[in-house]
Design a protein that fits this description.
globular, 13 strands, Rossmann fold, 16 helices, 4-stranded parallel β-sheet, 6-stranded mixed β-sheet, alpha/beta
């Protein structure tokens, strides 16, 4: 049982070991991790279900990890001592009946990917990448400059840098992160700082940081950790496996996911497709919905042309800062996922996404702005009749709302320019005396 790199667009171009430091094929295309499906089919679909269910309830790591409990489908050759795990995965698939009823849906779930170690779905992919780098360092694999891998680096709008910094620190590997200056929340900035990463704040946007880090890894023995590295996809695809597992090994009809650099979209497709190919789950693949912010919507624009053109754009400022990406690395991957899952792309305005966050929070959630994009798009599609009342729908919540308290505080204070804040709930300022308090309570509670 083995896995290897192959060209995403032209698999016949060649194959490379996962122990090689390679990010693109010789023709310049992205790579994909390809598994030996014939070897995996030696275990029946029922046997895989039983194994994965047993590991989900395990006491010890790595089996207890939602990623490493599926390690034969991720990095089948890695030794246990090389695995770097911080308890990622196995997060709740939360039935949200009150929010679902408010949106007009009978069966709505939120996949809480922000309820993991660093507060975002990035942990699923980063555990795989850092584990593989740990393996290569332990085996003495030389970098492109003939030296051992000295550090792991990434460009980030926040969440990727947090995940890389934590996992690298846990493994004792230096991390370098390239962040766009003044464009991420304080909570996101402090995570890599606290974990000891070397933080470079660059006077550019995410796409500019991505350009710099790609140039840096060509001249220094620093391993690239961005989602163009297909190892990340291998971990993130286990989110799809978890969703099916938590639904009793069934597919939902729809999965709605925020889209920025778009690797997560392809990862979800890849996980669902492996489940079907290996006979673990039967039926039609879920239809994927990519939700983009209106100010950073290159995939939406391409979708409206039937994917006749795939053009980058200059992304504008958005509350959903982690998906403020105008030139997604995984655009072609996302297109394949959408075409093979009969998927669609929709967008949300700034007011729609921030209102959707507040609306969901009033039902007991605490959503990030990116999940707000997905919820706003879901509302649009339900109102249009595209998604039916009785359809089973999963929204992938990509990060924890605690990372974005600044925008939430400003929303409820009515301090966001151009935003009416329909669901704002500011505190009542009262004198500390009984009469006024009682009158306020009667008025608010209808007593």
């Amino acid at each position: 049982m083995q896995a290897e790199y192959r060209s995403f667009e032209n698999p016949a171009e060649g194959a490379w070991s996962l122990d090689e430091i390679i990010y693109r094929s010789p023709s310049g295309g992205l790579l994909d991790v390809v598994h030996d499906l014939d070897a995996l089919r030696e275990r029946s679909g029922a046997a895989w279900r039983l194994l994965f269910d047993e590991r989900a309830g395990a006491r010890d790591y790595p089996d207890r990890s939602g990623v490493w409990g599926k390690r034969e489908w991720v990095l089948p050759a890695i030794a246990e001592e090389h695995i770097v795990s911080l308890g990622e995965g196995n997060t709740q698939l939360l039935p949200v009946k009150r929010l679902g009823a408010d949106l007009g849906l009978d069966r709505l779930w939120i996949k809480q990917c922000g309820h993991t170690h660093t507060g975002s779905f990035k942990d699923w992919g980063m555990t795989v990448l850092v584990s593989q780098v740990n393996r290569m360092r332990q085996l003495g694999v030389a970098g492109r400059q003939g030296k051992q891998i000295a550090a792991i680096g990434c460009a980030s709008t926040g969440d990727t840098s947090a995940a890389l910094s934590a996992y690298a620190a846990f493994a004792g590997i230096p991390a370098v992160v390239f962040l766009p200056a003044d464009k991420i929340s304080i909570a996101q900035l402090v995570q890599p700082i606290a974990n000891g990463a070397l933080v470079l704040s660059l006077d550019t946007d995410f796409d500019g940081c991505m350009r710099v880090v790609r140039e840096v890894v060509e001249v220094l023995p620093i391993y690239l950790a961005n989602s163009m590295n297909s190892l990340r996809i291998e971990g993130q695809k286990t989110v799809a496996i978890e969703i099916a597992q938590q639904l009793g090994w069934q597919f939902p009809e729809w999965v709605v996911v925020p889209g920025g650099n778009l690797g997560n979209v392809y990862a979800l497709y890849k996980g669902f497709e492996m489940l079907r190919e290996l006979g673990v789950v039967s039926g039609t693949l879920p239809r994927l919905v990519v939700a983009q912010a209106e100010r950073a919507n290159p995939l939406y624009r391409a979708f409206k042309t039937g994917f006749a053109t795939l053009e980058p754009m200059v992304a504008g400022p958005t509350f959903a800062s982690a998906i403020q990406i105008g030139d997604p690395v995984s655009m072609k991957r996302a297109v394949r996922a959408l075409q093979r899952s009969n998927g669609i792309v929709e967008q949300a305005s700034e007011e729609e996404l921030i209102d959707a966050c507040a609306r969901a929070d009033r039902t007991g959630l605490f959503t990030c702005p990116h999940t707000g994009v997905a919820l706003a798009v879901l509302d649009t599609l339900v109102q249009a009749g595209t998604i039916g009342k009785h359809d089973r729908v999963v929204v992938v919540s990509t990060a924890h709302g605690l990372k974005f308290t600044d925008s939430k505080v400003a929303y409820h204070a009515g301090a966001l320019a151009g935003i009416a804040a329909r669901w704002k709930n500011p505190p009542l300022k009262l004198q500390a005396e009984l009469g006024g308090v009682v009158d306020a309570l009667k008025a608010r509670l209808g007593l």
